[in-house]
């Protein structure tokens, strides 16, 4: 989980603290000691998002973040993205083929025949 910070100057105890805090934010604190194969698809996706966010980026690129998830977990992921955008000011660019997901976004850019519209 804290791998992105291991090559920075962040001390190991701070990496551990941030990792646990991020898992808590994702609703996964109780799964902190589980291996990936012990997590559901939605939980694995939230861990991937947490790993992407642990370095406190201003921008998150999410390529089909809900593509392999059921509708309930997809809603949870989108609610999380909306919350991160509104509460923490993180810009999130979502690439999706799912129109229901796109409708939840505040701005839309479409690519058709190689042209952005």
TrEMBL record:
Q: Which GO CC terms are listed, alphabetically?
A: plasma membrane
ABC transporter domain sequence ranges? 18-66
Q: Which GO terms describe its molecular function?
A: ATP binding; ATP hydrolysis activity; transmembrane transporter activity
| Organism domain of life | Bacteria
Q: Which InterPro entries match?
A: ABC_transporter-like_ATP-bd, ABC_transpr_LolD-like, P-loop_NTPase
The protein's name in its UniProt record = ABC transporter
